[in-house]
């Protein structure tokens, strides 16, 4: 159970990086096939593109967050912080977010989200049960992603407890608001 809650304490760096790269490649192909586009570090929309642009979006979303976490961690930590520790653990921590995107492979979920994207809220509200299930599943995967991202940051930088949480949340908020502008370039 401890390995599931905090895998970063037990997971070797090379394995974290390899699993993260596999997930990044698979999600790039999935986003390309389904027509999803990263519009922020944790948001997507239905403006798909080529496989190259889907891969670049995944890479930018990961690297932007990893670089900012590294810089903040290197400044705030009293111990030595290595970039590859932060980057590999952050890439592995994205796996729950990537898993949450698999919901969009279900045709009914895609059509409901398409209705919401088009602004047809009244039609989408006819499927309230499905919307609630999608919302609950998305919330659970989001909590898992944020928890793992913090644990990855804390393990890689040795900044823990309240100070670590505050630094992580502030860093995430900054990257969340900057990432749409960077991702627009792709």
Provide structural commentary.
This protein is mostly helical. It contains nine helices and two strands; from the N terminus they run ααββααααααα. 75% of the residues lie in helices and 4% in strands. Helix 3 (51-76) crosses helix 4 (83-93). The longest helix is centred in the C-terminal third of the chain and has 30 residues, at 128-157. The termini are far apart. The relative contact order is 0.16. The mean pLDDT is 91.
Main beta-sheet strand count, sense and barrel state = 2 strands, antiparallel
What is the H/E order? HHEEHHHHHHH
- Radius of gyration equals 17 Å
In total, how many beta strands? Answer: 2
The main sheet orders its strands as: 1-2
The best one-word shape is globular
N-to-C CA distance = 40 Å
Mean pLDDT: 91
Number of domains: 1
Report helical residue fraction. over 70%
